Amino acid sequence: MDRFKRLGQPPAVPRYSQVVLSDFLQSVAELTQPRWKSDASRNGKSVHLQWHATDQLRVEIDESAMRSVLTNLVFNAVDAIPQQGQIEIRAEAAGDHAVISVADDGQGMTDDQVTRCLEPFVTFRPDGCGIGLTMCQQIIAQHNGQIEIASKPGRGTEVKITLPLTCPPRSDVPKSTDGHQGRRVLLVDDDESVRESICALLAVKGLKTDAVADRDQAIARLETSQYDVVISDLTLKNMRGDQLLQECRQRWPQVRRVLISGWSDEAKDDVSSGSDAEMRLAKPFNADDLLQRLAKLDDQVG
Fold it and tell me: What is the pTM assigned to this prediction?
């Protein structure tokens, strides 16, 4: 979970600086060494990592956020290696872009897994939460970059990140989501891994999210703090999520109310039959979709 908390903390607006990629890759190799060397050895693995970057190749990036991306990719590569294997990180110029790749010779993925691995909450590991690659994709998009994944079962995986050498802030971010920066969200879900994942996902979009597990904790937070949005799972331990949102509407009518569920038909039936949710979203949901729909609700009120 610490990994997801760290990944959930990149700044909402990237802070660009010129970075020499050879120095950057070296710092990533050193930062991740406990995972690919010490931890792997303790788990009976033999993993070697090597890196190479074109001399004096510079790129304008948010160094902290992009380091989180590379760290996540290296961790994934270590997890994909069953017993022994190699991880290679490379950076080279391609016209007015830089291409950074992380490749391993581990177990690889099927075509279906490659297609789905960037979706939020989709994971192929028993202990995974399915948020790491989604957040990597969002950070890369903030840099006007692209991510490509190529993989074959038994032959390993290569992830390529293409970044412009000079990366000004994005000018094509929908204005409808700009007003959500700093908005306070209360998330209610009794699954700890889901809470951590959604908090990390929303943090990338600049939302300040507190997370609790049940109705009593949610009410206690609402009574002592101000929130703009309450997002509740449909199925809670001591109260259904739609009942909680009904109580929120009665006591805090100005707070936006969002119902989420892993069973989209069930959530849809509840909303259509008189739920006090102003919108419902099926898990996994897209953070941009949430923000755009909140903006529409604001426009209706305005």
Answer: 0.61
